[in-house]
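Can't paste images in this forum, so I'm doing it all in text. The chain is below; anyone willing to post the predicted structure tokens underneath?
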Amino acid sequence: MAELLFWLFLCLFLYTYLGYPVLLWLFSFRLKKRSKHRSELPSVAVVIAAYNEQEVIAAKLLNTLHLHYPASKMKVVVVADGSTDRTTAIVQEFNEVQLLFQPERNGKSAAINRAMEFVDAEVVVVTDANTFLSSGTLTELLAPFADERVGGVSGAKKVQAAGTVSAAGSGEGIYWRYESMLKELEASFYSVIGAAGELFAFRRDLFRPIPVEAITDDFYVSLSINLQGKTIAYTTRAAATEAASLSLQDEWNRKVRIAAGGFQSLVYFATALNPFLYPRLSFQFFSHRVLRWIITTPALLFIFICNAWLVLQRTGVGYDFLFVLQCFFYGLALAGFLFRHSGTNRLLQLPFYFVMMHAALPVGAWRYMTGRQSAVWQKARRPVTE
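Text version of the structure:
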């Protein structure tokens, strides 16, 4: 039984992180999409949810207003609900920007919902206050909308490790390079499963109000567009750059919140797992999200326990070798934790981040099931980067 469980969970784990991308790569050869070109640029509204962002909001608005896009076709809306610092005063200095403010803070989902009441552009671009865009980002981000099957476009996220950023923050950058590769493969096959909220564009007429209790607004909007029969494209030519989290606690809180939002999404979008209604979407949703959220963390635990039992039972030298490899990997992760403030190299950063990410999954599930994860969350502290 231990041997059976060992190989079962090992295969599930390997499929999630290696098998699924390989299948996407193989399938994408037969499903190449023809690129289309739109003769006329669509009108666009850039929505920025900014809660107490006085350190970065001026730089963010200057960055946004200097994007290469016709001013007559671009509108910028900042929702600063609940801000108690100088964010609103700074935004008011920019005459080209529309400010929305109310004293109550209800979270990013509520902020986006409110912004939609003031937006009539063809395409809406949601971007975070602490992320900065290259000058040609909007043109590249909106290009895939020439295909009527495309309902949204996810830009790439680039994590910039700077100065004394923690090992967890540096590991985040390495992990996001893997995620970016996976998103490219998903878009080639059918659709990205969950756009990055740092830079996400969607057709205004496909937007459905986000429940105020939604923890991950970007994932909710993405999947609701998928359920309307449209795809989410991905482009690395449009990228949002942000600094890595300043501390382990900041990154841990962020991962727990994302995990809680993931389990919440399984409730919201259970129908997306129906292969008769959504053949390709259900395959991707199950492989990329369901297996990762529900299976991978217990799989790691069972793989280690079963491997240890097989070693004690002297089952074979192959199991001894696999157990040594696991101990070595977790040893690197432990070293990454112990030396997290000393500028650890990548040999320690990635194992540490990987283990921390999986440890956050059951915590996030518990917080969601007990109702302890609010949609109004404390954002991770990040250095200002341009």
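The first helix runs from residue 2 to 28. The chain has a mean pLDDT of 87.
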